[in-house]
Amino acid sequence: MEYLDEFYKEENFKVLKSYLLTHTVFAAYEYLDSDILNSATEFDSKDDLYDFYNDGYKNLVLSNHEILGVAEENAYMTFFIDDEVKKEIIDMCADIKAAYRSILEEEEWLSEEGKKAAIEKLDNLEFCVLKPDTLIDSSYLQVDKDASYLANFANLSISQRKHNLSFVGEKRVKGDWRYDLRPEIAATVDNAFYYGCFNQFFICSMGVNEFRPEYSYEENLGKLGAIIGHELTHGFDPMGIQYDKDGNMVVTDENPSGWLPQADYDAFMEKMNKVAEYYSNIKPFPYTAVDGNNVWGEATADIGGITIGLKIAEGIEGFDYDKYFRSFSTDWMTQVTLIGEQGDVNNEHPLRHLRVNTVLSQFEKFYETYDIKEGDLMYLAPEDRITVW
Questions:
Q1: Is residue 81 helix, strand or coil?
Q2: Are the CB atoms for 156 and 143 separated by under 8 Å?
Q3: Are 232 and 94 a contacting pair, CB within 8 Å?
Q4: What is the pLDDT of residue 272?
Q5: Rounded to an integer, what distance in angstroms lies between the CA atom of residue 302 and that of residue 230?
Q6: pLDDT tens digits for range 131-143
Q7: Buried b / exposed e across 179-209, counting CB within 10 Å, b at 16+?
Q8: What is the distance between the alpha carbons of residues 376 and 245, in angstroms, rounded to a whole number?
Q9: Burial class (CB in 10 A: 0-12, 13-18, 19+), 211
Q10: pLDDT grade, residue 11 (50/70/90)?
Q11: Where in the chain is the domain with CATH 3.40.390.10?
Q12: pTM: predicted TM-score of the whole model, two decimal places
């Protein structure tokens, strides 16, 4: 404070003014014109930022997590979401939910208490597909065409902050799709996922990318259906059991198994450990083995997704298993370098070819469809096959 007292004198006024002005402009340079932006980035020796901002000013305003994100989301959902496609995906979700319910009811390692709790959670789960029935009013985001870009950005930031703060203390409404508050559940996000703390399942733009009206039911079930089944089982794995049917976290130090009875949890983990052991014996590259304890969660969900799909197939006369398996397999096709593939071996998701070959070799229907017999490369003896659900 003594130093500041010495510095804040009339003879230093011009220096202080220049300092404050420079830092104010520097803090706002990305919202001003490109000449100022260029000067600021050169001064800061971050030349790589110039091209990024100069080529993409819209990134600061648009995208699902920026100032005009809600308005952008509304435009996308209004003009690019086909209501008929939404309806077809909702129907598929209902099939998947019903099939998983049957699996839970028939699961031998689950106790009656465990089945009851799991089914109660499943029945209370809601699917949010492509867009909500009612869009969020974005009128709180007003743009003044006569104002500068900086002024608009500042005013929009204030409006957004006030809008978000208006929900403080409010009780969450079941089934709400608040993409204004949580950009990770925005419709333009290329994802489909289970949200434990809401007990909701969100199918965003991935539904548009993975589902095709011109595909057969089997093909769509093998693509988007397998993804939905995969993600759905996450609501009932060691992470999923932490949240009850209302999305409340129920795991404690005294109750580590959450809503699942302890005996059921132990039986479940025994099966999961077998999955981990199985994958740990896979060596995709010389001197490199898969870490089963790293991938067992995603690997189990992969297998669970196909289990659900085949359960649905049992009730469809003339179901084309070849189309189903081929559609699932081609969904994982990619081109990648050897180095890239070797780097992915440490990912929590199994390598892409393992997500096809290893998963499908666990199912008898796959053997029947392609007449796979003992001695064939993809044959796996029944006693060596791994399933959880």
A1: coil
A2: yes
A3: no
A4: 93
A5: 5
A6: 999 999 999 999 9
A7: bbeebebbbbbebbbbbbebbbbbbbbbbbe
A8: 44
A9: buried
A10: confident
A11: 87-129+189-384
A12: 0.85
Instruction: Choose the CATH number for 87-129+189-384 among 3.40.640.10, 3.40.390.10, 3.40.50.720, 3.40.190.10.
Output: 3.40.390.10
Confidence of residue 41 (pLDDT cuts 50, 70, 90): low
β-pair type (192-195, 200-203) = antiparallel
Q: Token digits for 69?
A: 């994100």
Q: Are 201 and 231 in contact (CB under 8 A)?
A: yes
- Structure-token pair, residue 281: 């014996």
Higher pLDDT, 312 or 10: 312
Percent of the chain past pLDDT 70, that is, above it, reads 93
Residue 70 reports pLDDT greater than 60: yes
- The mean per-residue pLDDT over the stretch 185-200 comes to 91
Token digits of residue 83: 């209501």
Q: What is the pLDDT of residue 50?
A: 45
CB atoms within 10 A of CB 296: 27
Closest Cα partner for 136 from 70, 224, 204? Answer: 70
Structure tokens at 267: 């039986």
Buried-exposed string 217-235: b where 16+ CB fall within 10 A, e elsewhere? bbbbbbbbbbbbbbbbbbb
Q: Report the amino acid identity of residue 361.
A: S
